[in-house]
């Protein structure tokens, strides 16, 4: 059973064997930036846009975002393709990535976080201009693709950021773990508290922010191709929609051609029968 599913009776087919090698956890980081104390002004001017490392700022302390592995990238790539196709059909807002950060001021202090992916709804009062390199509002959804490179990085995404995003008002928070141990989905309830966004009895996750976005939980690990997804009712509303329309048109034209051919054959048969009767007469 896949460990992230809340209904433990729901079976999951993983795309990797049970013997999939897991990296040992590093109990402490050793980079030259992680843990460095700097001012917010210094962070924005010197560290925010560093090319060789992704750094966040936690109330005066730099925190390095860990590097992913190929399995993590495969999960990220599949999900990004999925949700990108959704936004091609349903224009509900803008996706944000590429280490674009936003500032959170909450009771525990000031933080600057760079979610792996984020979403700004078209109705959000703070929109992001095309050439801005940071976001001045509150993202509607944040997505973090978990790396298990060290214990603290795991806790940062699963505990610390969950608390921060909840307090700041991020409406949904998705944690996607390429091993599945920590994968979880949360939505903000009417009391401003995160609740689990649980799969339905078919294992389907349905967003409360995005009207039509849904995906089968196990597909995060099976990663079906578009040709497979387009045959699945869960995805038909937004996967290869133009292809589906073209296919329907082609089927309709094919049916029309077959019907015309059948009618022509029937007419030809009637003519032959009429000619035969005429000769007999």
Based on the structure, what is the oligomeric state of the protein chains? single chain
Radius of gyration: 26 Å
Q: Which segments are poorly predicted (pLDDT under 50) over 5 or more consecutive residues? A: 1-30
Spatial strand order of the main sheet: 3-6-8-9-10-11
| CATH second-level architecture of the largest domain | Alpha-Beta Complex
User: What share of the residues lie within helices?
Assistant: 25-40%
User: Order of helices and strands, N to C?
Assistant: HEEHEEEEEEHEEEEEHHH
What does this structure look like?
The chain has helices at 40-47, 70-89, 151-168, 219-222, 226-229, 241-280; strands at residues 55-58, 61-64, 93-96, 101-106, 109-113, 117-121, 134-135, 141-146, 172-177, 184-188, 194-196, 204-206, 214-216. The chain has 281 residues and is α+β, with helices and mostly antiparallel strands. The protein folds into 2 domains: 40-239, tt1808, chain A, CATH 3.90.1570; 240-281. The strands form 3 sheets. Strands 3-6-8-9-10-11 form a 6-stranded mixed sheet, sandwiched between helices. Strands 2-1-5-4-7 form a 5-stranded mixed sheet, with helices on both faces. A hairpin with a 2-residue loop joins strand 4 (101-106) and strand 5 (109-113). The chain is elongated and about 110 Å long.
């Amino acid at each position: 059973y896949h460990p992230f599913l809340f209904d433990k009776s729901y079976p999951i087919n993983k795309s990797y064997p049970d013997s999939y090698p897991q990296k040992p956890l590093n109990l402490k980081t050793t980079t030259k930036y992680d843990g460095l104390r700097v001012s917010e002004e210094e962070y924005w001017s010197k560290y925010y846009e560093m090319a060789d490392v992704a750094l966040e700022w936690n109330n005066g302390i730099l925190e390095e975002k860990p590097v992913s592995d190929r399995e993590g990238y495969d999960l990220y790539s599949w999900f990004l393709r999925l949700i990108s196709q959704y936004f091609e059909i349903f224009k509900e807002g803008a996706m944000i990535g590429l280490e674009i950060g936003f500032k959170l001021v909450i009771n525990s202090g000031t933080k600057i976080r760079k979610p792996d992916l984020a979403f700004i709804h078209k109705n959000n009062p703070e929109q992001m201009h095309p050439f801005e390199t940071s976001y001045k509002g509150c993202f509607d959804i944040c997505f973090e693709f978990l790396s298990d490179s060290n214990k603290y990085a795991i806790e940062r995404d699963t505990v610390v950021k969950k608390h921060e995003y909840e307090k700041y008002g991020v409406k949904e928070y998705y944690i996607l773990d390429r091993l599945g141990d920590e994968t979880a989905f949360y939505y903000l309830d009417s009391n401003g508290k995160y609740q689990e966004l649980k799969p339905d009895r078919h294992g389907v996750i349905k967003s409360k922010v995005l009207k039509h976005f849904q995906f089968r939980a196990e597909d995060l690990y099976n990663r079906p191709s578009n040709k497979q997804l387009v045959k699945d009712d869960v995805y038909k509303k937004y996967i290869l929609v133009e292809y589906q329309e073209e296919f329907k048109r082609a089927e309709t034209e094919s049916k029309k051609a077959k019907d015309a051919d059948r009618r022509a054959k029937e007419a030809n048969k009637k003519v032959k029968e009429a000619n035969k009767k005429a000769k007999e007469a």
